Input
Amino acid sequence: MYAQMIKTARSGVKTREEMNDQEREFQDKIDNDIKIEPRDWMPDDYRRTLIRQIGQHAHSEVVGQLPEGNWITRAPTLERKAILLAKVQDEAGHGLYLYSAAETLGESRDELVRLLHEGRMKYSSIFNYPTLNWADIGAVGWLVDGAAIVNQVALQRTSYGPYSRAMIRICKEESFHARQGYHAIMKMAFGTPEQKKQAQDAVNRLWFPAIMMFGPTDADSTNSDQSMAWKIKVKSNDELRQQFVDQTVPQIEYLGLDLPDPNIKWNEERGHYDFSDPNWDEFFNVIKGNGPCNVDRMKDRVNAWEDGQWVRDGLLAHARKKAAAKVAAE
Amino acid sequence: MAVDKDKLLQFLLRQGDNTLILGHRVSEWCGHSPILEEDIALANTALDLIGQTQMWLGYAAEVQGEGKSADDLAFLRDAWDFRNVLLTELPNGDFGQTLLRQFLFDAFQSVLMGRLMKSSDETVAAIAAKASKEVAYHVERSADTVVGLGDGTEESHNRMQAALEYLWPYVGEMFESDDIDAAMAEAGIAPDPAGLREEYDALVGKVLTEATLDIPAAKYAHKGGRTGYMHTEHLGHLLATMQWLQRAYPGCEW
Ligand SMILES: [Fe+2]
Ligand SMILES: [Fe+2]
Ligand SMILES: [Fe+2]
Output
């Protein structure tokens, strides 16, 4: 998802007998769906896992500006340009909001950004794929924000209060993005043959990266048990992926586009669509930094940060002078 | 009194092209600004400018009466038909240059929109009323940033002073007047820009002084944008990017 393969900061779930009183009380709250708040006691590993997950989610929102920003200057109409600007502005706002949620756990935004720039934190694999034609922008809103919503609706029930509330707020905007994205690709799919070709190309390229967003299969998802017990994670990767596929296949059909995977078939018995696994080697390669855009994305972010150093320094210096002048005047 | 339709059209293109071209430039920053809050603020500024463009060019298309849309005007005219002042098409440079360009333009807009709200043309007055709220916010923000960077560190001060040396010769064009402006003034649609200079200089002078920046002494002003006689080389590249989809796939709905 926007947070993939989050290593839970310990191995193995403790049984009730292994827990001390504090841990037992904490687990009881979680089992009774009582939210954990910043001032509450929490296990260090719970805190560390959450910081990683929320931090990665925040980084994804920020890096996610880049593939969409790639088309802002080429948007084909004033309205499309305005919609895309508004969306990207929302995504940056989500980043800000999530960094604040991480701050309630005692981790500063500057520190998280530093870890990202040093390659020690990640962002969602999806943003390491390029946006190559205008239909990609519709597809990103529809498929990428759509996949994010599936995950984030589940996370509205997550145990940490500030994260849960962030998800509720963010989901409203993501739903709007997904609808606008679908509307944009609909124009392409129902447009001229050349436009339809772009729409098909976008779906073909982005389908597997989108379903990879949910992370590896449950069998390969080594860190899930503790996160599930703590309700940092609420549904399994495969459950969420299936839910996304089930809701998306009819939408592709409605567009009149070919399905991007020949094995997509309704399975009467399961009551779900069957589909092919994405290429997991590719997924792990992207996670390791070998995706088509990893290097460029990080270079963009690091350069923006370094080129902006004089601006941050200048504004800070001015604020200090002003504060000093104010003190002197008192 | 009835105003010459072609002159009104030219006036509206000047308004809409200014916001279109500057909005486009600002949107180039997406995801690359010095801090997340600025990414949000720049996207918001660009969004406001594009929104104003939709209103100005929408009205321009209506006045033109050839069945065209705001999009046709934005995406299907060539450089010589654009009527924006040169200032708006200049490259972004560093963040300081972008914000200083923004301030120099915002200050002009804040003076102009105040007058246009009282335009004898109801549509012009309504667009200005809506835009003026956004402009008031933009000028406050860009002025704050210019002051902060001008009066920040030695490096930020030097960069801002260099940006001012580069941009200042493009300020004068905003106050040029010609027969189009005379006709607008006569019809009570818009003030003669030359008459706005004093108020502008007072506002800009105050902010730049606070920013500890020196206004260049040279009085020379580059011009040619608002008449379309001679744009900079930069505009063609901007249009090549902005108009590409509409040019490559004509007649589509997007
Ligand atoms: Fe988002
Ligand atoms: Fe979104
Ligand atoms: Fe706004």
Notes: Chain B touches chain A through 52 residues (CB under 8 Å). Chain B has eleven helices and no strands. Residues B 44, 48, 134 surround fe (ii) ion (ligand 3) (CB under 6 Å).
